[in-house]
Amino acid sequence: MSSFPGPATPQRPLPGNFISTPAGTARPQPPAFPQYQLGQPASSQSSAPQQQPQQVSQQSNGISTSTTKSLTLVERAARTINETLAQDLRYPALDNYLSQGISSDYDIPKDSSWAPFQQVKRYPMPDSILEQHNQSQFSTQMGLFAELNHAWIVIDNALYLWDYTNPNPELVGFEEQPHQITAVRLVNPKEKVFVDAIKRVLIVSTSSDIYLVGLGIEEKAGGIRDLSLYQTRMQVSVKGMGVRCIAGSNKTGRIFFCGTTSNDVFELTYQQEEKWFANRCGKINHTTKGFTSVIPTVSFGQKPQTEYVVQMEVDDSRSLLYTLSNISTIRIFHMTTPTTLELVINKTLGAIKVNIGHMVSRSELIQRQEVKIVSMSPISASESQRLSLMLTTNTGCRIFMSSTARSYYPNDASSIPGSMQVHHVKFPPSEQNSAPSNQIVTYTNGQNINTESRALTLTVKSFRSAPGYSLLVVKRGQSQPTDTLFLVAPDAGRIARPQEPSLVPKFVDFGQWLPIKGASEEVPRGLPEDMGVVTKEFSAAPTPMGFGNDLATQFDQVSTEIAVLYSDGVETIRRRRLVDVFAATLRYGQHEEGVEGEVRTFIRRYGRSEITATALAVACGQGSDVNQEARVAKVSDVDVLENARKVFIEYGGKATINENLVMDSNVLSIDNVRPSPRHEGIALYMTRLLRSIWKSKIITEQSTPIGGLQIKPTVPLPKLQSVQRDLNDLKSFLDKNKSFIDGLSGPEALGRVTTKQDEIALQAEHRALISLLELLKCVIEGISFVLVLFDERVDTIVMSLNDTVRQRVREMTYENMFSGKEGKELTKELVKAIVNHNIANGANIDTVTDALKRRCGSFCSEQDTIIFKAQEMLKKATEAGPDSASGRRHLNDSLKTFEHVAESLPYEILAQTVDNYIAMSFFAGAIRLTLEVAKQSDKAKKALSWVKDGSPANDSRKEAFGKRTKCYDLVHKVIQAVDQATRDSPDTVDGHQTLAAKRKSESYTEINRSEDELFQTNLYDWYLEQGWSERLLELSSPYVVNYLEKKSVSDAGHADLLWRYFAHYQQFFEAAQVQLQLAKSGFDLDLGKRIEYLSRAKVNAGTRAPGVNDLSYSRQSRQEVSREISDLLELATIQEDILDRIKSDIRLFGEQKTKVLKQLDGPILAIDDLFNCFADQAGYHDICLLIYQIADHRNGADIKSTWTNLIEQAHAQAVGSSPSASSAKPWEVVADKVRTMGSRLNKSETTFPVPVLLPMLEAYAHISAPGQGPAHWVVEVFLDAGVAHETCFVVLENMFYNEEPPFHGRNKRPICNDLVYVAQKWLEESARTGQQPFGGMENAVAVNELLGLVLRDGGLDHQRREIATVLRARVDAMLRR
């Protein structure tokens, strides 16, 4: 430790005014406490410049890390799944690929394996229906309730329903009225109007009334539905109206109908009870108002109206009602409120033709007078934002209409349409139909479009369902020798992947001819009576973007199936998925180049990634076909599966390096590699299997009838089981074929690479494929876990969780569970709840955990099992009691078991365990376990290194520090519990340690023997926060010293505690060092506190304690420190003098005085600053002399001048003070000042020069104080100050001989008198001390001689002359002896 540097010699400043001298800016910066090392290699100030480059480097690394974030394999695969989902959702909306204009392009395959639709099964008409039909007297009608797998037939006044899929169906009939039935419609009822058993309502219109018949639906196994009819006693008269069209809103339950006698639109109103002005059932005319709307129309020979409604449709997505009249006029009504219906658009066929005339100059298919609209099909807002309606003409043209809102704002589902225009016209296909199945029909974009094809002339009916599946019924004629169905489906693969990616996707349709044939060639079948979708309405996305992507749903949803009702039965037609088409081409393909030709055609059409995904699906058994039993079955043909496997492996492509990224970074990296189409195919297949569950929540809460909550799976369990089976098949396929797949085949694949680029690409491919495999395993086990969860009493399990975890479980999705860290944590909570639930019910923990590991091993690992066992031991200890032998044994066993899994023990379980240990007074075990968990969670000691590096903000090590801190907080909790438990208990009883004292001793032993430096630091911080600083003094640990030394750098309280700690353990010299540095520090300490530290340091530095520690410092180092302390203490004392002097100095006042006092009452200033800025400028001459003394200043002129000023100042102050009886005389003030300074200056020869001061004071007494005071007060001042008699005598002797003014001539008398006085006192002192007179013979001779001269000179007064004579005689006598 370096000594305090000696103060420099003060320089005399220029003359100035004291009032303005001590400015704040002149104050130099004192040495700051951080310069005190306390064992550290460098101060914080000196190390800051060295740390700066390191921080910059870390920042740059952080930026790099954020851009290429390190992901786990599962997280990387989850990102791939999300990207693939987003890719499927980017499928263009109908508005985007159905551009404004005309087209006639259809791809009509001649190869049946490429056909977009497939006939599934024919269901014959039941014999009972045929018998009733043969008994018909007037008319019959037929129709479908396809969504219920039921058909209906009206025979005169009777309505019969039957399940057409049942070979022996039971007829359900409505025969309770006598009138002829004219129309039947199935609608959804309004809420809370009917009993819960009524799910739907049959609207049955007769020639007299409309009846509302309740329909009950009972779901049975195998998809069978039993229907039952309920009498609602609701009917309204429609006599004379000839009702033929009925439509209902599934969203609101409103019912509309029209008759053949007018073009009016009526609404059938119904409610639960009658009201004052409304019956339970009634009708409202929304088009003709007034008295005529309630009077039946009766014809008395007048010509009937020529226009009436032939079709009505409701679009609930836009709240619109469409009507089509017999003269092809379209009217659109908006359901503005639940009770109103407003006509907003009236579009005639002529206006439609005018719109089309802007697109095509002339076409007989449009402009002929015989052309009419035979059907209309609404397009929902989910499918298209602008396109709202498709019209079909009797010439086979499909006209797509777009509507615009009345307001300026863009269209949305709630906008009221103001106008409707033709957007696109799809003309019939060419009559030749010569395009082969394996050729791509180029979209002509309006060029060479055939607008005169009569292939679909005599179209009598059409049907459309999302996302564009259309069936057109064409009667036989010149262009068609037989009645035919023309089936249309958009080619989603080519729409999603146009041949030119930069171009807008084109409207690409598949077409297929399906002749209408009866059971035999001889028996004609007739045209379809009705058509409907059997399966759930298609929707790949809730928005137009992505809605029509049936490729995305081919493994997730049942393929769309359409039922067609004929007079002899029902026939079902299914939309074939791409995977079905691909399986069929592998099985029945007719390409001239065989399978390879078919595959190349697929690749050209749909891309390599899509085909590898499809081939993989076929190889995993996803392909289906209609078998000989007219059932849709999986394709299991060995050749087909093998060919699909080969296509997946051989056409999967290779990973490629993005050369642009490589050129930018000049570094080959696996992050610059695009995985192979094979990887993309696997990702596509996995994504499409998972798409319905990936973003779904796992559980949903439903209210029970009694007001409770019931937990239900958001995704039905059969659906989960189906997804899991498909994923297991995928995993099995990849496991069996990994040796043939680059990226999965292992290290031998590296032997086939030839360049560095190929090696990097193969590594990237391996990482990508392994990531998908890892996610695949997690998903399979995750689904198993969900199935296990719902096998248990899930309500009890979820409710047993704490509120925070329960809410997080409610929000948890399958994605989070499969791939998220939070999901893993929540599943562990659920596993724990399952185990605890079973244990509470008496189950054995091994049985429960073995079952969990068998079904979902990753969710219940070996470590989880150990934790459960430890918890079981803890439970047994609780049951046995903490003071029993078995209870303590179970506690110790649980502790050992928990320690085995300390590395992975969740904090929540640790906290709960600590609480249980505290409750059972197992304090030492709680501390030991907590410290072990903290240690195992941070084996690399990242937290400690983070703290030592200055705790940078953006650093991954901060997380480890947070984990450790949470554990340490638990230790604090245990300490408080220990102190609370032992507060009122004695330590010993009858000389034996009490149990409470023993437990406390064990607890603190665990704490004190811990070698965790970070814990000790945390603990000491906590002690000080609690105000327990005395506890630190009681700890004999090296960690305490290290802790206090580090904290002392920035905190004075810790430094104060450090020297107290050293003093407590008798390390006095170390305490003195700390006190010295505190006095020198830059902390906010007042000057008095610094002087106190220096005073204590001076004592401690001079105290020697017995022991080895005291010998560790050399004598020289001790002396250096002691000297530094003494010098600094003197300097501080001077500064304190200046401070006290300025406080009472009236020359300074106000803000300036406050500033000066603040400068002085703080760090100890340098000696030259004290002199130049304060003491000299303020005229504190006595303090200046003290500074000379400390600084070893030897300039005699300066010293003499300062003494002169001091004496003059003292005299002036005494003279200027107000006189009083008790006030001192000026000479007394001067004498006292000189006497005091002599003592403070230790009679220094330099700063207290008697040869200078004595003449100066004699002159002062002679000139300024003549005749004042005692005769010899001047020499008495020096003698009192301890100046030797000899010194005073010599100075006076010189004055006597030199005769310097004013002491010459008669003025020498004071000098002569003082000479005699000093000689007399000197002789008396010699006699009193027993020494030789005057110190020896030589001095005695000199004194004798001088006395003789003085007597001869005559300068003495009478009294002194007598004394001098006697004194000289005595000296002569002594000399003669």
Automatic annotation (TrEMBL):
Q: Which residues form the Nucleoporin Nup133/Nup155-like C-terminal domain?
A: 676-1359
GO MF annotation list: structural constituent of nuclear pore
What's the protein's topology in the membrane? Peripheral membrane protein
Enumerate the Gene Ontology biological process terms: mRNA transport; nuclear pore complex assembly; protein import into nucleus; protein localization to nuclear inner membrane; RNA export from nucleus; transcription-dependent tethering of RNA polymerase II gene DNA at nuclear periphery
GO cellular component term of the entry, any: nuclear membrane
Write out the annotated subcellular location: Nucleus membrane; Nucleus, Nuclear pore complex
In what residue span(s) does the Nucleoporin Nup133/Nup155-like N-terminal domain sit? 114-571
Q: Where does the source fall among the domains of life?
A: Eukaryota
Pfam families documented for this protein: Nucleoporin_C (PF03177), Nucleoporin_N (PF08801)
Keywords assigned = Membrane, mRNA transport, Nuclear pore complex, Nucleus, Protein transport, Translocation, Transport
- Family annotation (InterPro entries): Nucleoporin_Nup133/Nup155_C (IPR007187), Nucleoporin_Nup133/Nup155_N (IPR014908), Nucleoporin_Nup155 (IPR004870), Nucleoporin_Nup155_C_1 (IPR042533), Nucleoporin_Nup155_C_2 (IPR042537), Nucleoporin_Nup155_C_3 (IPR042538)
Signal peptide boundaries: none
Bias regions of kind Low complexity — which residues?
40-60
Looking at the record, which segments are called Disordered? 1-68
Which PANTHER family does the UniProt record give?
A: NUCLEAR PORE COMPLEX PROTEIN NUP155
Annotated protein name in UniProt: Non-repetitive nucleoporin
Which species is this UniProt entry from?
A: Patellaria atrata CBS 101060
